[in-house]
Write a structure and sequence with these properties.
Length: 234
């Protein structure tokens, strides 16, 4: 199985940068790779992307030397199974408000003893080229589960959510959080900033890396759409 370079960089406390990908075309991935980002999050929540496109985008991400993650549309066994079998090295869960959502996602994303992901010898397992018992252990070590906190209730429950041992890092969702607070799209509003501060404190308490959206991207024209920075210093 491919090494999750994003996970390695986070463990070494290196700064890492990524982008959401809502346009289901491999050329977009190539552009992001040339801009030297560390990871992409392929969007299944808002974008009109089918599973065949997800696999092609994952393959392009691998060739570009980045880590492919997928934002799922819902916590559901088959969707999680398919995106991971496509080769995604992690899932981003939108609108997490309860620890139980993470628990269910973990059950579908990891093999025994961490979960009950359905066994398969597809792309991530190199189509059965190597012993699958070893692949199961590797997969559990490489896969990431990332909750998005983007509501008042999510912030309120953030310590419970982020204390789950399989949470790799947390991603803020300032836009939907602003709507939850009654000030849609006003992400600089004091109420929104206070809630984000509370979420950041919860992440530090649980020793979970905190990912924040960036108004200005890292490099060049692609970066000007904005991006994600994972704060690894906790």
């Amino acid at each position: 199985m491919r090494t999750n370079t994003l996970k390695e960089k986070i463990e070494r406390k290196q700064p890492v940068f990524g982008l959401f990908v809502s346009i289901p075309h491999p050329v977009i991935i190539e552009m992001i790779g040339h801009a030297e980002y560390d990871f992409v999050i392929i969007d299944l929540e808002h974008a009109a992307t089918n599973m065949e496109s997800v696999e092609e985008l994952v393959r392009a991400t691998e060739l570009a030397g980045m880590t492919p993650l997928v934002r799922i549309s819902k916590v559901e066994r088959t969707e999680i199974l398919k995106v991971l079998d496509c080769g995604a090295q992690g899932i981003v869960i939108p609108h997490v408000e309860q620890r139980e959502q993470v628990e269910e996602a973990v059950r579908h994303a990891y093999y025994h003893p961490l979960g009950m992901r359905s066994l398969n010898s597809g792309r991530p397992g190199v189509f059965g080229k190597y012993p699958l018992t070893g692949y199961i252990q590797e997969a559990n070590e490489q896969v990431m589960v990332v909750p998005m906190i983007e509501s008042v209730e999510g912030v309120r429950q953030s310590v419970s959510i982020l204390s789950h041992p399989q949470v790799s890092w947390v991603l803020e969702g300032a836009a939907d959080l602003s709507q939850s607070l009654g000030v849609p799209w006003q992400t600089e509003h004091p109420d929104v900033q206070r809630s984000l501060g509370a979420l950041h404190e919860a992440a530090k308490q649980c020793q979970v890396p905190y990912a924040t959206g960036q108004k200005q991207g890292r490099h060049g024209a692609v970066g000007r759409t904005g991006g994600i920075h994972i704060c690894v210093g906790r």
